[in-house]
Amino acid sequence: MHALFIGQTYIDVTMIADEMPSGDDKAVARDYAVSFGGNAVTAAFACARLRGRVELLATVADDWLGRMFSDMARRHGIPVHPRKVRRSSLSFVLPRDSRRAILRARDDDYLDPVPRLDLSQCAALHLDGHQADAAIHYAKDFRKRGLLTSLDGGAARDNTRDLLGLVDVAICAERFCQQLGLDPLGCLEFLKSRGCRIGGVTEGERGMLWYDEAGDIQRMPALPVPRELVIDTSGAGDVFHGAYMASYLERPDAPWREHFTFARAASAFKIQHLGNEAGLPSRAQVERVRALYET
User: Fold this and answer.
1) DSSP letter string over 78-106?
2) Structural domains present in the chain
């Protein structure tokens, strides 16, 4: 089975620095990484690394950053359905402890209409809300065919309420809750009211508050990765989404607790590595993390 991922492409420049200069000051970073970025895009790369079969509908510009991204996708064996924009989107990511500051420049002025794709091989869809017209179009298509739809609710967007009515699995960030004026429990009730079969709110070091197939609310704690091993939490949520999609593609009838347990370990691997590409685990690396930290 394949999964289609739809999102906004970024090139991420991640730097480890002791301070951020201002004015005429200068500083030297201790380390850096350059990689693909974007929520659903990074999730697609994570899914592919975990042997999930992936197709990606993503923004691509005819510039040197766009060519860099296309080369990354080829090296990871990911077929890209490009949606043209004039300029590539860029992120500067500055991790520190368990937080990360991000400065973005984004071009979401799409030069093409929503492409009509042959998705006869696809059994699941993952969205992050970007490319709103494409997200709604394909969510309706997958829902009509009775196929799984998944949403990364990293932020509330203009199309969020409409999209949630077409989503089976919605895993949201605390920022999403705050934008809707809800606490995590209130957000779960909101997701239930929109018809989401599985819903959750990720809370960083506190793990995830979520409800299962029966609607029962429970907490999945984060794995106890020692603080001194945490390097870069940026992209950890995206890897989480990509990993549970890979687990679903392999075992679609398994309980969602098992998909999320697998994804939790993938996310724990990511936070120990700088940049998105270095933080993509293999299945063997996921199992090593589970052996180390699961009790």
Assistant:
1) --EEEEEESS-EEEEEEEETTEEEEEEE-
2) 2-19+30-293 (3.40.1190.20)
Task: Check residue 146 and give left, alpha or beta (phi > 0: left; psi -120 to 50: alpha).
Answer: left
Q: Mean pLDDT of all residues in the chain?
A: 95
Pairing of strands 10-16, 31-37: antiparallel
Cut 0.85: pTM above it: yes
Do residues 7 and 85 touch, judged by C-beta distance below 8 A? no
CA 265, distance to chain mean position in Å, is 15
Question: Which residue ranges in the chain fall short of pLDDT 50?
Answer: none
The answer to whether the beta carbons of residues 232 and 261 sit under 8 Å apart is no
10 Å CB burial of residue 179 (0-12, 13-18, 19+) is middle
List the structure tokens of 60: 């691509």
Q: Report helix, strand and coil shares of the chain as percent, to nearest 5.
A: 35, 25, 40
Which tokens in the block code for residue 244? 């549970």
Which are the contacts of 193, defined by CB distance < 8 A and separation ≥ 6? none
State both tokens at 162.
Answer: 């409409």
Give residue 101's pLDDT: 86
Would you list the DSSP string of 165-229? Answer: TT-SEEEEEHHHHHHTT--HHHHHHHHHHTT-SEEEEE-GGG-EEEE-TT--EEEEPPP---GGG
pLDDT at 198: 98
Report the pLDDT value the prediction gives residue 270, as an integer from 0 to 100: 98
Specify the length of the chain in residues: 295
Say what the alpha-carbon torsion angle 41, 43, 49, 51 is, to the nearest 10 degrees: -110
Give the three-state DSSP class for 130.
coil
Kindly state the tokens that stand for 20: 């951020």
